Amino acid sequence: MSVLLLARELTYRVGDAHLLHGVDVSAKPGELVAVLGPNGAGKSTLINLLAGDLEPTSGEVVLGGDSISALDHRRLARLRAVLGQTRPNDNPFTVAEVVAMGAHSRRGSDMDLTLVMEAMDVAHLADRVVATLSGGEQTRVSLARVLVQATPLVLLDEPLAALDIAHQERVLKHLRVVCEEGRTVVAVFHDLNAAAGHADRFVLLSAGEVAAEGSADEVLDAEVLSRVYGHPMEAVRIGQRLVVLPAE
Amino acid sequence: MRQRPTKWLMLLGLAVVVLAALNLGMGAVGISPSDVLTVLARRVGLSVGNEPTQGVEAVVWTIRMPRVLLGAVAGAGLAAAGTALQGVFRNPLADPQLLGIGPGAGVGAAIGAVAGGARGAIVAGTVAGVLTAMLVGRLARRTAGDQARFILVGVALGAALTAWVGFIVFGSSRSTVPPMEFWLLGSLTASTWRALGLAAVLVAAATAVLFTLARSMDLLALGDREAGHLGIDVRRTIMVVLAAVGIIAGATVGAVGVVGFVGLVVPNAMRRLVGPSHRVLLVASMLGGAGFVLAADLAARTVMSPIEIPVGLLTALVGGPFLLLLLRKASYS
């Protein structure tokens, strides 16, 4: 299959406000696609539409060859996993129990939960009740649960929020491993540099539209970023890595 | 770290058996344990001991046995209902009586009592319980995210519906409808085998439905959207749970009146003992609920003997302070 996820002409309107307008997004198996953009650009709305949580005002999301509007809850749960932005913090279950919940919709997969928990550095917290964890730890537990769902598509809305820099790198590296398994990750990032070092492709949103789309060199361009973020930006190379900095 | 639940389930089961035995023997007429055992043994076809007198036989088998079983069924059902409500709404304060489902069932049960006696009360109470539960489901959507407001809306609904029960009670003949205290504090006094049979079937069917949704209730602890992402049809799950809770509330209110706080106190206490997994929690709550009502009824019949006080007075005596404790730390975890 050449394309796993295909969103065509996605528009989402609330009253007179166009939260998203004519957005096209596609992702191939094994790709890590970073969705970038300033606050209010429509990143979370896009994830919600791709997840099937919102119904587009117009346009269509096709996942694995089927329109997601035609898929029921169970089928969708086998095709895509979602890490949303808001997570309740009063979960009474333990970390191990919550991660195991990710396997609920799976059929016949023998993924080792411990390996995923170790990858997200939560294995040592296995017996702790989730509500007693810090925000960053809870995010890592949620990530482990989402990855355990073992779906071809993984949608992540700000997976690095509340994570320290070491855990950010650890999560990003594991997302690369997930992609090497042939799964597709579409993730919203606020940290342009974290995205720059690990994503295959970038979608830069601005005011509900795609401002730029393509490789790091095409999207993380000082001129493009300066225009979209409304602040002068610089893009410099340090070794192999592209680094974006706010200009003086 | 949590304790192993099996130990608690066995202890709870033992407590229910002991409380049931005490209820059969104690009361205005004291009956020795050997006489109680003799009556029970002869009822299941074992000829042991001396033949009990007709009076002892009537007290144990005709009066106390249906009362004990109905108390256990009501307690188990209400605690299971509270467990399910707290699970799907992630709200430790959710309780069928506090949310107005019990009083709603009371309106139907009071009308049913006028039309069809004790069994009419159970049938009509069940219908009204389901309808009120559906209304609570709509109110829950409107108060989404505001747990305290949701409970207060339920309390307001319950107050209004209790007023309607009052109009029916005071507008009807005393011989057809139980008195107002039955609808406010409950009573096991008029328990019969006929009422027990119908209530037990309804409660058993509804709790069986709740057990089939136990895993979905677990996943709802992650949040509605997250549970949906894992393949749960959240809206359908909540509506089925509400329907089952409506049946339980209706059947119990029709049979024993509005016994408060069982669905609030027991699930919260049991969650601490056996953890939040609903398959185990439902079993623990049912045992705990049965034990709680049996203990309350034992006290109701003995603390001011020969005067019998309403069982709901005792559950409220424990439940009121417990609610205050919960309000100090209103967290589902």
3D structure, described in words:
The complex is a heterodimer of chains A (about 250) and B (about 325). Chain A has about 250 residues and is of the alpha/beta class. Chain A has a single domain, classed as P-loop containing nucleotide triphosphate hydrolases (Rossmann fold, 3-Layer(aba) Sandwich), CATH 3.40.50.300. Chain A has nine helices and twelve strands. Chain A has helices spanning about 45-50, 75-80, 95-100, 115-120, 135-150, 165-180, 190-200, 215-220, 220-230, and strands at about 5-15, 15-25, 30-35, 60-65, 65, 80-85, 155, 185-190, 200-205, 210-215, 235-240, 240-245. In chain A, the strands form three sheets. A six-stranded mixed sheet of chain A has the order 6-7-8-3-9-10, sandwiched between helices. In chain A, strand 1 and strand 2 form a beta hairpin. In chain A, helix 3 (about 95-100) runs parallel beside helix 5 (about 135-150) and helix 4 runs antiparallel to helix 5. The longest helix of chain A is centred in the last third of the chain and has 16 residues, at about 165-180. Chain A is globular, with a radius of gyration of 18 Å. Chain B is mainly α. Chain B has one domain (about 5-330): ABC transporter involved in vitamin B12 uptake, BtuC (Orthogonal Bundle). Helix content of chain B is about 75%, strand content about 0%. Chain B contains 13 helices and no strands. In chain B, helix 1 runs antiparallel to helix 3 (about 55-90), helix 3 packs parallel to helix 7 (about 195-210) and helix 7 runs antiparallel to helix 10. The longest helix of chain B has about 40 residues, at about 100-140. The model of chain B has no long low-confidence stretch (mean pLDDT about 90). The interface of A and B includes residues 51, 78 and 97 of A.
